[in-house]
Amino acid sequence: MTSMMKPAEDGYRPAYEIIATKITELITSADLKPGDRLPTEHELSEQLGVSRTVVREAVKVLVATGLVYTRRGSGLYVANKASPFAMTMLDSLTPVDPTQVVSLYEFRLTLEPRAARLAAERITPHELRELREVVALNQRSAETQQRQQFRESDAAFHRVVAEATHNPFLAATIATTTRAQGWVFDIAAGRTQVLLLTYAEQHEAIFESIQEGEPDTASQAMQTHLEWALSHSKQEVRRRLGAEVVE
């Protein structure tokens, strides 16, 4: 079985992203039509040589982009049409230039506080359980300094919040920007345990606001989280790369 990260020309990509791309290629190469059934999770795991956990995460990405949909007790099917951002999401493999960190966070700040607000209003019990599990994993990863796992759970946190808006445009766009920041995240969050714990605590605050159904508080908590991340990322880009941050 594969590890959770795979080497790529520009750095590292989570395995679920690679598998999401491979499933998309499978749909194309097999000339599957809307409504056609895909192999089961177990079959995809065997066929692609990865764990079922990786396949499950890849499927969540594809569902968020509108490329596939699931039927409980039946399986995975090709959707009628994809989100307009689907292929952009799957094809944007190069991490954002770290000197453009301000532009990236400005973009995220226009989207994610609103997403947190909507999530507090719309999240389902199932999504809330998933978000709780992601927050717990994020906290454990910070405490044990498992940076790879922390990065993946960080991305999963923002993905689940976005999916809980039940807005496919927000979900797909936020998934894209979360992946684009990969290089910046490694620079900004990977140096000390204190930083990881701070991120985890901020995620917990956002989760609690969403769980309590408090849209204003959730939005503000996300705003605070991203502004803090922006400030620290700018400092780290300057310190470690000697690069000027575009503002």
Write a compact overview of the structure shown.
The chain has two domains: 5-78, Arc Repressor Mutant, subunit A; 95-241, GntR ligand-binding domain-like (Four Helix Bundle (Hemerythrin (Met), subunit A), Up-down Bundle). The strands form two sheets. It has a two-stranded antiparallel ribbon. A two-stranded antiparallel sheet has the order 3-4. Helix content is 68%, strand content 6%.
Would you give an account of this structure?
The protein has 11 helices and 4 strands, in the order ββαααββαααααααα. It is mainly alpha-helical and 247 residues long. α2 packs across α3, α5 (101-122) crosses α7 (147-163) and α6 (125-144) packs antiparallel against α10. The model is unreliable at 1-12 (pLDDT under 50). It has helices spanning 15-29, 41-48, 52-65, 86-91, 101-122, 125-144, 147-163, 168-180, 182-189, 193-211, 215-241, and strands spanning 5-8, 11-14, 68-71, 75-78. The chain has 2 domains: 5-78, Arc Repressor Mutant, subunit A; 95-241, Up-down Bundle (Four Helix Bundle (Hemerythrin (Met), subunit A)), CATH 1.20.120. A hairpin with a 2-residue loop joins β1 (5-8) and β2. The strands form 2 sheets. It has a two-stranded antiparallel sheet with strand order 1-2. It has a two-stranded antiparallel ribbon with strand order 3-4. It is globular and about 50 Å long. The longest helix has 27 residues, at 215-241.
